[in-house]
Amino acid sequence: MTPLAPAPAAQTAPAPAQAQAQDPAPAKGPLNGLATLALAYGTLSVAGALFPPLRAVTGTIPVPALVLGLTGLANARRMHGAGRKQAAAGVATGLVGLVLTLVTL
Asked: In the chain, fewer beta carbons within 10 Å around the N or the C end?
């Protein structure tokens, strides 16, 4: 009789959950905070123009929304487009809020 050779060691592949846990998190791109603020201020300006009780609090918010949106667009050019859509939406909602505020006075 020939002696049996030991079985080769089974190679175990890492489980998918372990492989995902070992992968580094994907890097996030740069954030454009001015664009985010412009969008938030623009949204508040439209809400304030449509609801007269809020207008007492949000009366002058369309102007900072426009300024922040235009500054956010300039930052987006320097940051390779980060926040460009948010800044453009902030400018648009700021303009709409300004027009609605002036029309409904």
From this structure: N
Q: Which helix (H) or strand (E) holds 27?
A: none
- The CA distance from 52 to 54, in Å, is 5
Quick one: tokens of 1? 């009789």
> Alpha-carbon distance 69 to 82, whole Å?
13
Nearest in space to 39 (alpha carbons), one of 100, 101, 96, 89: 89
pLDDT in tens, 51-86: 888 888 888 899 999 999 999 999 999 988 888 999
CA–CA distance, 59 with 98 (Å, rounded to integer) = 9
CA dihedral 55, 59, 61, 64 (to 10 degrees): 170
